[in-house]
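Contributing new records

If you add data, match the layout below exactly. Sequence lines come first and carry their own label; structure lines follow with theirs. Keep one chain per record. Anything else will be rejected by the validation script.
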Amino acid sequence: MDLEFAGPLFEWRGPAPYHFVAVPEDEADQIRDTAAYVTYGWGMIPVTGRIGETDFTTSLWPKDGGYVVPVKDAVRLPEDLRLGDEIVVRLTIDV
């Protein structure tokens, strides 16, 4: 399954802050339809992705009935991404 969407980069504060982009509702609905086949526990879903020119692997995190994409420093820094930036995310989920 291939998805593409855009959203603002936000920070989720915790013991260690993380940066994320929320998956829009339409795309989250598509992911939920296949989640049982690909989750490895706690609702986490492994994905490969691309932001700008940077490819990455991560897992979608379930949050508030949807999903968020963690944006690691290894992606954020080379792409010069800042909080609030509108980011285009391309994801592939192997089903």
